[in-house]
Amino acid sequence: MGLRLKTKRGESLAKAETFDVEIVGSEFNVVSNVTSLGHRVGLMSAVPSNALGQRILHACRQNNVGTELIEISEIHHRAGVYFAETMVEPRVSQVLFDRKDSAFSQHHPSSTIVDQLLDSRIIFLTGITAALSPITRETTFLLAREARSRNVKVCVDTNFRSRLWSVAEASETLRELVSLADICIAPTRDIEALFAGSTDPIENARLMSQLSPAETICVTDGARGAYLLRDGTVLHEPALVVEIVDRLGAGDAFAAGVLHSLLTQKDESTLTFGTSMAAVALSSNGEQVSISARELDSICQKTNPDVLR
Asked: Which of 106, 119, 211, 237 lies 20 to 30 angstroms, CA to CA, from 224?
């Protein structure tokens, strides 16, 4: 969790003079989206004891994300930052990370914090946290193993970021992490890069079932939609066609839709919720989605009016 500094659409980082600032982070995006759908969630993290830390805490509270498990560091005074440029085809957008030695990357949660976090139905973990530092990697595995021992569901999103660690390091770590998952989410590009997968998402879903005991395996595949492997059957949901406003955050929105389906025990809607949330994220500014469960149901059922009067 940290600050995103984003250029104007079509403006490169090399020439940008002003940036839009937003508090982001994969886990923060997901839990923020889940709270908007009506669920109670909290976030375990650490922030510096300065104005940037206060800004991050304020963003959590604005999004109704519980801050009880966020510690304020008096030792490590950096907040994670990343720079995002949003280019227009044929140019490719890029993200540059500056997260080394952030307060969270140096954070050892207390046993009390761990116990409070695991008083949950589901915990959500990503490959990004595992990539930040040896400390966060150790914490990620501690939480996954403790959750399984306490019958708390573990949802893992591979979320591979090549600018945070090498393919070899990520592959070894994430193979182990998905082996602890009850719910596994992975983009086709991650499966290809890390697990010797193919371009076929159905084959990739079955490959993930060999690596993970997860009862729910979701493979996302961009414009081709998403695939779900459950009970040996692969289901497919095409992506919704939308006008893309901001690409960042679509994967996190998909994960939030998956979690919403599990928390509401609407397993039959896992893909529909996921792809609909991703579509809303793509067509909205910012990395978090502000949407109610009722509006999400309307989008899934294609009953939204053009204008609500």
From this structure: 211
